[in-house]
Structures are given as structure tokens and as C-alpha cells.
Amino acid sequence: MLTSLTSFRDKRLFSIFVFGIASGFPWVMIGSVLSAWLKDESLSRSAIGLFGAIFAVYSINFLWAPLLDRVRPLLLGQRRGWIAQMQILIVGCCIWMSTLDAQTSLYQIALCGLFIAISSATQDIAIDAFRIDTIAQHETDTMSAASSLATAGWWTGYGGLGAIPFLIADLPGWDWQQIYLLLGGIMSLCLLVTLVVAKEPVVNREALLAQASAHYQSLAVSGNSVVNKLTRWLLVSLVEPFREFFSRNGARLALQILLFIFLFKIGEAFLGRMSIVFYKELGFSNSEIGTYSKLLNWWVTIVFSVIGGLVNIRYGIFRGLLIAGTAMAASNLMFAWMAEIGPHKGWFVVTIILDGFTSAWSTVAMVAFISLLCNRAFSATQYALMASLSVASRTLLASSSGILVDYLGGNWALFFIITAVMVIPSLYILYRLRHQITAIEKGQTLTRD
To answer: pLDDT for 319-333, tens place per residue?
Structure first.
């Protein structure tokens, strides 16, 4: 285990950690902070839950991911250029949000949140591709370390920095509009790292694309060479990343992998979307939510992200996913018990620790797993395809979480029990894929049976 720690000393991991922060922080802007703001403005649980539909953007970002593989910005390179542009847009949206009033400008708030989601989802494509392109394919231990630090960074942005709005929301003279100005300032610091510290990955993308798209070279749809070149460019950009993934893995195995990715965190997604509303209804203050749900969860996640990376390096991704999935169901049941006993701070701490462990461990294993599945010629597109499926359960389906709570008559305990049961189908698929996942880690040809 101590030998595995050397993988974390790589200097490239600092930029990956900061990019993780930049990836997680926008979820605070359009997630927990927006939910708390709308709750303070007396919007219903169902309305707040439906606001989560803007997260659906994260589940479809693979549709424009090919552009990030093929279109090179004028400045900063293929990956850093896209990251910087999206960060600038996010800062601008925070400034816009600070001028809006929830009672009179609800439509504009939703629209601004949608723009943040689009910019953030596009930034995520470039960040994930940056990580995959930065770490060589044979550096599997470093990839696991990078996955753990990316996860730790994400939770630093979402949990650590995400605690700041809740800690200051109860202070005199602060309102949610001013808090959005603060969020924009914090995001500007991430932009500074992108511009000054991060180094553009060195990848001979043209050679990889030429190799991956060789079978399109003889295609001729007309006698016009310009039309033929444009057709081949579109096929390589939009079709080849998906064709290559299904061809390499086989249709049946590929669909099983994608279904597992989609289902794995669905229970956690339903829980997470309503967690802030649950804490506030249970009686916790904004400062208590910031301290326990954000700050405590931040440190727990960082610790278990590193431990999860070490376990993946030593024992494999399959075991990491299996442990995390089982623990996810258990942590959801702990939330059900908290709904029964009320705002008990001690039980809140225990529940947050286990929930942080499951979130960190499962994310590290999933990020490493998806990263290993990607062809470097299409790292942005293929990672976005698989990651968007994981996000889809957190957006398209989990946006109905508030409706489910209302349907259950506000029975939070039953709601959390249902979210625990949601984990079971993914664990069944994971068990069926155990041999294939082991083969992926060893770089072997996958069994398609």
C-alpha cells in the first residue's frame, strides 16, 4: 500500500486536482445553493425538484463532445482552450445571477442556471479529456491516482468550497445574490490556474485519428472532393467514436457496461437531490448544513478518495465498485433512520461520514473504469458518452425526487429506503461483468459472452 503512494507524487496531478474543483463547483451554483435560495423563497418541494431538470444537460453533453476532440480553440490548446472559455462563461453567469430576484425573475434564474449547466458540462468534457490525455495509457497506477485526486478535487469544489455559502448565509448583511458574486470570484481562481499553471497535454491526435478512421478513406459520396472531405470529417467526428467503442467491446457487452454505468448511482442521485430540503425540514440551520453536509463531507471524501485510489491500485476496480455499491445502500438506510429520530447531530455526523465514503469510493472506481475504456483518439467523446449516462440518472430521473417525496406524503424514511433498493440492479450487473472488468484492468481482450 505504501508503494502505491508514490503514484500520487506526480506533478501533473496538481492541475488535475484543481480541474476537479472547477468541475464540482458549478454544481453548488445550480444545486445546493439554488435549492436553499428557492426554499427560503417558499417554493414547494416539487418545484425545487423540477429545477434540477437543468442538470439534464450533463447527461447529453456527449452530443457535442466530438467538437472538443476536433475543433481547436485559437488560444491555449485543444484542452486548456475549451476549459478556459467555459470557466469565463460560468463567471459571467454568476454575475448575472447576482442581479436577479427569485420572486420576480424565476424564469431568468432558470435560464441562467441552464447556461451555467451547459458551460459546466462542456468544461467537464474538456477536463476529463485533459486527464486521460495527460496520463499515458500504460500508467495504470497513475491513472487510478489521477482518478482519486479528480474525485477529491470535485468534492473540494462541491463540499469544501460549497460550505462557504451556507456558512455566510446566516450572517447579517448577506443575501443569496451577493453569495453568487462570491461564487463567481472563487471560480475566477480556477481560471487563473488554467491560464498559468496547467500544461497542455502532448498528444499526436492527427496520427491517432488517421489510424482510427482509416476505413473511411475510400468513401466517396460524390465526385466533389470538398464534399467527400467534409463527409469523412463528420463521420470521423460524430460516428467513429461510437462505432469504435461498440466494435471493440461487442454490442452486447457494450450495452451491459452502459446500463451498469447508468444505474450505479441512481439511488444516490435521488437522495442527493432532496438532501438539502430534508436537512432544512428536519430542523438544521444553514450553518449546520454547511458544517456537516459540506465541510465534514469534504474531508471525509478527500480521505476516502485517496484510500479508494490505493485500493483500486492494489486490489482492482471491481472490488472497489462492489464495496462502494453495497455501502451506498447502507448509507441510504442510515438517512432513513435519521428521518425517524430527528435532528440528532451525532447521527448526522455518522451518516455523513458513511455517505462521503460511498460517494468517494464509488466515484474513484467509476472514473478509473471509464477512463480505461476510452480510445485516446476520441477521449473527450467516449468519456462524455459514458459519464453522461452516469449523470443521466442524477438528472433526468432524480429531478422527480421531490414529486416522489410528496407522493409518499413527506415520508422521508420510506423515501430513503426506496433509494437503497435502487442500488440492487446495478450490483447484479456488476457481478455479471466481474471477469470483463478484470480483463480491462489487465489490458486484455474483453470476453463478449
So the answer is: 777 887 887 788 788
